[in-house]
Amino acid sequence: MAPPSALRARVLAAAAAQPSPTRKDGRRRALVLTAISLAIALGGFEAAGGFGHSASRPIGITIALAAGWAVASLALSIVALRRPGRAMGAPPLVMLGAATLAPFLCFAWMHVWSGAYAEPSPKFGWRCIALTLLFAATPLASFLALRRGVEPRMPSALGAIAGAAAGAWAGVLVDLWCPLTDTAHVLAGHVVPLAVLVAGGALVGHRFLGVARKD
Amino acid sequence: VGTELEIRRALTQAMDRYADGDEAAFADVYDLLAPRLYAFFLRQTASPPRAEDLVQQTLLQMHAARMVYARSSDVFPWAFAIGRRLLIDSRRRTKKEVLFSTAEDDAAALDLRLERFEVPEGVAISKELAERAEEELERMPESHREAYLLVRREGLSIAQAAEALGTTQTAVKLRAHRAYEALREVLAQGGLDET
What we know:
The structure holds 2 protein chains of 2 kinds. By secondary structure, chain A is an all-alpha fold. In chain A, 71% of the residues lie in helices and 0% in strands. In chain A, helix 2 packs antiparallel against helix 5 (126-146), helix 4 (92-112) packs antiparallel against helix 7 (183-208) and helix 6 (155-177) runs antiparallel to helix 7.
């Protein structure tokens, strides 16, 4: 059951007619987009007041909080990006499971520190929501652009884990900025935006990351 | 087994070269992959033109996605995962399609079924069994059929099929086994065992 010989010429001609980026191009694009994402996030962080905004909280707690989110971010990024010997990376169910768990774990970690110090007056957390979404938007959009149309299995799972990773990294900066850890604020200002990014990533991933015909 | 391993290794090396920008390597990728994909699509669609179209689409997807191809990774699961997705989309678009509309198509489809089950063409009863096995294959859940075809027909390992289907190895084993049992039952009723 060999394919007809004319098909070979047709496929090679079609590929030659539509040049595609190489791995080197991909690395260059990823580097540029990462640099842009970092610049936007750090610029936004400084513009919002930087470390000074959380100065009322003991520095050790601030660092511990951010470190916990950083560990979660790193783990989520590994699940989303690392693909040793596997062309498609982690199994979709692993991606989906990790993305779903992320908001719960991050909430649990922040809850550990609730009441450990005298907090400033509680606030709903609109600025935390805005900053998380702002910091996460560029890396998430970059990832979706770089991986557009290449996920053949479950694009929503890849989108969800990308949203979780971008949201968790954004959460690291927001933790360094925000002095509050009371439960209501953490849920509204830190966990909800992360969950929104997971759900949004899944929806957008479903729409844009999946393999589709090239006609 | 040695040849199979060599093919996989050669395919990985060719895809690596192509992802690194060696344009000529795409011909090697085609030569190593297209026959397997074509056989897979032909079995799934029983339509040579559709199989050709799906081979072309799969390879063009790989061409477009070479930027994200992970170095030294197994190409087969990736290629079959792309192919499977395109096949599902193609089926959705042509849900009401009549596959065998002419007498000539009918004959080709029958040949294909016989070839699929490696039944001697001269044995009349085998044709009926092949038909029944074919019907059973089409009747079973798609997930079972895919697992069975990838493992039993395309020779992918359980791990590779699991990667291609985006599920666990246990699920692939279970699905392929259920498909196998269903086919065996059908064939055993007529005294022919699916091997």
